[in-house]
Amino acid sequence: MKKMNKVAIVQCVWRQGQGNVVVRVLTPNVSDKDNTDVREFHFPSFSYLPSSVHPNEKQQEVADKLVQMLYLAPPGIQKVLPPDFTPNLVLEVWRHDSYRLLLSFPFIWSITLHGMEPRISIE
């Protein structure tokens, strides 16, 4: 992937009633094996473009269906962090992955959530 200057789209989150879409991609980076790099890519709204380049209704419907098809969970499986109910999906996924990583260490971890701030201690 690095030689071809390519990335892999691994998740696309479309929220009902919102104009923005979150796209998660994997980029090749062989130097840092343990680092998670989270970046948000913002795409401008069509409202800033001339109406001649706006998608018609059918094109918009096809684009919406494409984004919804990028849902990676198997049919019938619900996500741990449903996008419609998670205010900041990127941050919550990072927290979820961080907790999972912490719990994989051979220690007894005690994690207590107070509001949005985690309290972590080793027993």
TrEMBL record:
InterPro entries attached to this UniProt entry: SPOC-like_C_dom_sf
Top-rank taxon, per record: Eukaryota
GO cellular component: Ku70:Ku80 complex
GO biological process, one term: telomere maintenance
Membrane-spanning residues: none
GO molecular function, one term: helicase activity
Record keywords, A-Z: ATP-binding, Helicase, Hydrolase, Nucleotide-binding
Name of the protein: ATP-dependent DNA helicase 2 subunit KU80
